[in-house]
Amino acid sequence: MGESVDISIPAALVFRPSDSDLSRLTDMISDAGTVAILGGDGAETAREEAIELAARLKAPVGYALRGKQWLEHDNRTL
Hints:
- This protein is mainly α.
- The protein has a domain at 36-78.
- It has helices at 19-31, 43-57; strands spanning 37-39, 61-63.
- Strand 1, helix 2 (43-57) and strand 2 form a beta-alpha-beta unit.
- The longest helix is centred in the middle third of the chain and has 15 residues, at 43-57.
């Protein structure tokens, strides 16, 4: 038998926009007069982030049908 090899399973993947896309988005937000956030089903796992972003941008938050349960209009934190 050969030498044993330790194989480590990598951490869970993190999906995020590229740095250039984030930079472009930052510029677009900065150049816009006003912005709004429209949340969908992805808000299930990013609700706190959406709330924080809305607060930082002073942006109203709307929701698509599949985001309703995560970003309900009468949530007191929005």
